[in-house]
Write a structure and sequence with these properties.
With 447 residues, this protein is mainly α. The chain is built from 18 helices and five strands. The strands form two sheets. A three-stranded antiparallel β-sheet has the order 4-1-5. The protein has a two-stranded antiparallel sheet with strand order 2-3. α8 crosses α9. It is globular. The model is unreliable at 433-446 (pLDDT under 50). It is found in: Cell membrane; Membrane. It is a multi-pass membrane protein. Belongs to the SecY/SEC61-alpha family.
Length: 447
C-alpha cells in the first residue's frame, strides 16, 4: 500500500503527466455531462427507463454510456466513427488508391483520416434518421414533423462529431487513446447500475448474498483470464549481425519479435456479432419467416445454435483479421534489411514461412479463447445472472475495458520510467493493447 501511494505521488510530481491526466478527466467529464442533455424537441418526462436496454440496442446503449436510451445529443456516440474506420481500413486492403495512401506516411494518414471523417458524417446522418424513427416515441416529440427529424439529424451528427473531436483532443493533450477512453467510460458508467440491479435481485429474490459474492469472484476470474489473452505473446529470437565501425561495435545482440496470441483484438467479435444480428433483422422485415425454427434459434443469443455459430465465426474472423494485419513477408524483409536473422532459419522466404507458421499455431488457441470470452455473457444469462450485469462477464465490452486500461497504464508507466521513477509494477512490464478501430497507416487499428 505504501508503494501505491508513493507511485501516485510520483505521478503527481511530473508536471506533464499531471496536466495530461487532468485534461483527460476534464474532457471525459464534458462527455458525461453531454450524455445527459436530451435532444431538442423531446419531452424528457416521457422517456422510458427500460427502452433500449435489451439485445442489440442494449449493446449500443452500453457503448454510448446510456445516451442511447436517454435520447441524448450524444446518443450515437463514437460508433459511426468506429464503423467508418473499419470501412476505410478494409478499403485499404481492397482498393489500390487507399492501399497507396497507407504507404505514404504522414500525408497518407492525414488523407485517410479526412476520408474517415467524411464517411463518419454520412454514416451518422443515416443512423440518425433510423434512430429518430425507431427510438423516439411520437408522444415525446414537441416539434412537428418533418422539422423534428431534420433538426434531430443535424444535432445527432454534430454530437457525434463533437465526441470524435473530444477523443482526438484526449489523444493529443491527455493520456491514452481518446476514442478508446470514451468507449471505456461509457461502458464503466453502466457497471454500478448493473451491479446494483444484480445485488437487489439476489438479496430480495433468489440466491441471496452468497450467490452474489460467487458472481463477483467469477467476474474477477474472467477479467484475469481476459488479461492473460490480451497480454499473451510468443517471442521469436532475432540475432543481428555484428558490425565494427572504427572503434565502435554495432549489432551483435539478440532481440525478440513479440507475436501476440490475440493479434486481431476485439475485431473478430465485432464482425461476428454484426452477422449474428442478421437473423433478427430478417425476422423483422419478413414476418412470415419469423416462425422458422432456425431463425428463432439463431435470434436467441442464449441458444446453443446461436453460440456455436457465433464461436465458429469468431475463430474464422480471427484468422482472417490476423492475416490482413500481420504481414510475415514484410517482417522478414525488414529483418533482412537491418541485418537480422532468426537463428537456424534462412533469411528471406524461409523466415517469412517460419513466422507465418508460428502465427498460425498461436492464432488457433487465441481464437478459441476469444470465442470462449465472447459467449461468456450468454452463459451467465443462462445461469440466471441479470442481463445487464451478464454483459460484463465477457464479449466486446470486457475486452475493450481490459485493453484500454492496460494501454493507459502502459503510457503512465512509460512517463514514470522515462523520468527514472519506479513503474506501476514491481516485476515485469505492462504490455499489450486491444485493437480498436482507428486509421493509422498500415498498423492494426486500435479501439
Amino acid at each position: 500500500m505504501k508503494k501505491f501511494f508513493t507511485t501516485l505521488s510520483n505521478i503527481w510530481k511530473i508536471e506533464d503527466l499531471r496536466v495530461r491526466i487532468t485534461n483527460t478527466f476534464l474532457f471525459l467529464l464534458i462527455y458525461r455531462v453531454g450524455s445527459f442533455v436530451v435532444l431538442p424537441g423531446v419531452d424528457p418526462t416521457s422517456l422510458s427507463t427500460q427502452k433500449g436496454k435489451e439485445g442489440l440496442m442494449g449493446l449500443l446503449n452500453m457503448f454510448a454510456g446510456g445516451s442511447f436510451s436517454r435520447e441524448s445529443i450524444f446518443a450515437l456516440g463514437v460508433m459511426p466513427y468506429i464503423s467508418a474506420s473499419i470501412v476505410v481500413q478494409l478499403l485499404g486492403i481492397a482498393v489500390p488508391y487507399f492501399t497507396k495512401l497507407q504507404k505514404e506516411g504522414e500525408s497518407g494518414r492525414n488523407k485517410l483520416n479526412q476520408w474517415t471523417r467524411y464517411l463518419t458524417i454520412a454514416i451518422t446522418a443515416l443512423q440518425a434518421i433510423g434512430y429518430v424513427s425507431s427510438q423516439v416515441s411520437p408522444d415525446a416529440k414537441l416539434i412537428a414533423e418533418p422539422f423534428f427529424t431534420i433538426l434531430s439529424v443535424f444535432v445527432l451528427t454534430a454530437g457525434t462529431l463533437f465526441v470524435m473531436w473530444l477523443g482526438e483532443k484526449i489523444t493529443d493533450k491527455g493520456i491514452g487513446n481518446g476514442i478508446s477512453l470514451i468507449i471505456m467510460v461509457g461502458i464503466i458508467a453502466q457497471l454500478p447500475f448493473a451491479v446494483g440491479s444484480e445485488f437487489a435481485t439476489r438479496v430480495n429474490g433468489t440466491g441471496g448474498l452468497f450467490i452474489f459474492v460467487v458472481e463477483i469472484v467469477a467476474l474477477i476470474a474472467v477479467v484475469m483470464f481476459t488479461i492473460l489473452i490480451v497480454q499473451g505473446t510468443r517471442k521469436i529470437a532475432v540475432q543481428y549481425a555484428k558490425r565494427i565501425v572504427g572503434n565502435k561495435q554495432y549489432g551483435g545482440v539478440r532481440q525478440y519479435i513479440p507475436l501476440k496470441v490475440n493479434a486481431a483484438g476485439v475485431m473478430p467479435i465485432i464482425f461476428a456479432q454484426a452477422l449474428m444480428f442478421l437473423p433478427g433483422m430478417v425476422s423483422q422485415f419478413f414476418p412470415s419467416a419469423a416462425s422458422s425454427g432456425i431463425l428463432i434459434a439463431l435470434s436467441d443469443y442464449t441458444s446453443w445454435g446461436h453460440n456455436l455459430l457465433f464461436a465458429i465465426l469468431i475463430i474464422i474472423f480471427t484468422y482472417f483479421y490476423t492475416a490482413i494485419t500481420v504481414n510475415p513477408n514484410q517482417m522478414a524483409d525488414d529483418m533482412k534489411k537491418n541485418g537480422g536473422f532468426i537463428p537456424g532459419v534462412k533469411p528471406g522466404k524461409t523466415t517469412a514461412d517460419f513466422i507465418d507458421g508460428v502465427i498460425s499455431r498461436i492464432t488457433l488457441p487465441g481464437s478459441i479463447f476469444l470465442a470462449i470470452i465472447a459467449i461468456m455473457p450468454a452463459i451467465a444469462t443462462v445461469l440466471n445472472v441479470n442481463s445487464q450485469f451478464a454483459r460484463f462477464f465477457g464479449g466486446t465490452s470486457l475486452i475493450i475495458l481490459v485493453g484500454v486500461v492496460l494501454d493507459t497504464l502502459q503510457q503512465i508507466e512509460s512517463h514514470l520510467l522515462m523520468r527514472h521513477y519506479d513503474g506501476l509494477m514491481k516485476t515485469g512490464r505492462i504490455k499489450g493493447r486491444t485493437a480498436i478501430p482507428t486509421v493509422a497507416g498500415t498498423t492494426p487499428p486500435e479501439i
